[in-house]
Amino acid sequence: MPVYSRETLRSDRLPWVEVDDFQIFSLAKSVGPSVPTGPDSNGFTPYWGPAGPLASQIALQKSAARDRVVVVSGQVQAISDSGRTTLLKRDFIDIPESGLTLYNVGTSAAEVVRIQGHWEESLRTEICLFDSGAPCTYHYHDGDEYWFVFRGHFNLRYDNRDFAMRPGLMLAAGMGLEHGVPDPEEKFEAVVIATRLSGKGRDGMLVRELHGDPVPSRAVPESTWTRSELVAGTNSTTVTSATK
User: Fold this and answer.
1) Fold (CATH) for 3-241
2) Where are the domains of the chain?
3) Does the pLDDT value for residue 44 go beyond 70?
4) What φ, ψ does residue 167 adopt, rounded to 5°?
5) Taking Cα atoms as reference points, which of 184, 166, 168 lies closest to residue 130?
6) 208 — phi, psi (to 5°)?
7) Which residues pair with 163 in a beta bridge?
8) Between 40 and 136, where is the model more confident?
9) pTM of the predicted model, to two decimals?
10) Can you say whether the dihedral through the CA atoms of 158, 161, 165, 169 is positive or negative?
11) pLDDT band for position 38 (50/70/90)?
């Protein structure tokens, strides 16, 4: 199955993949104007990093047909021309044409996943969570599905091949292609987007024993499988912090 980093998604994306870009970033807790931005007389600095504290807000402009932000931890407020919306974990909002600004209004740092693409329809946008006591059954779908891993490491089983997954990688599960995590080494979480159904149009997780053999409908050249395995074995990630 195609497994992409942000960089390889831009350069090696297959024609049927409807996600164009993604980013994982953090928003710091707002510290207020009274907190010093440099060392005090004793040399103490109230933050880590040479560039100062992480930003607690970020302005985003729509730059794709579908431009969605999903909160994966913390509490965020989205302000746009349409008004003010508070987002908690699992909540999402599509960036309007006029753009929006995200503010961390929680008591700790917030994490956000931004996903850009050109999908025609999305059935759901959610967060999946699996661990050693709750594995992800080997299954398939009557539509395409995308995972954006933001926490944890695990071995993904896909079409009888194994992929080492980590934060900053995206999984593009084409219609009818079996995938799952039968033995998670640790807890992992990912944002999941399921797009329009096709074929028999059955929603949800489908397994051979109950729903019959899958009928793959997405072409994946052999060279893509090899390239995906190489990508999954690297150490780079796309986890970044927001800039002011």
Assistant:
1) Jelly Rolls (2.60.120)
2) 3-241
3) no
4) -60, 140
5) 184
6) -55, -45
7) 156
8) 136
9) 0.85
10) negative
11) low
